[in-house]
Amino acid sequence: MSKVFFDIGLSLDGFIAGENRSPQNPMGGVAPAIHQWMFNQKAFWEHLKTTGGEEDTEDGDRIRQVFARTGAYIMGKRMFEEGEVSWPEDLFMAPVYVLTHEKREPWVQKGSTTFYFINDGMESAFEKARASAGKKDIRVQGGANLIWQYFNGGYIDEFTIHVAPVLLGSGIRFFDGIDRTTFSLKTIGASHTPLVSHLTYSVGR
Question: Where is the Bacterial bifunctional deaminase-reductase C-terminal domain (predicted)?
Answer without folding.
Answer: 3-186
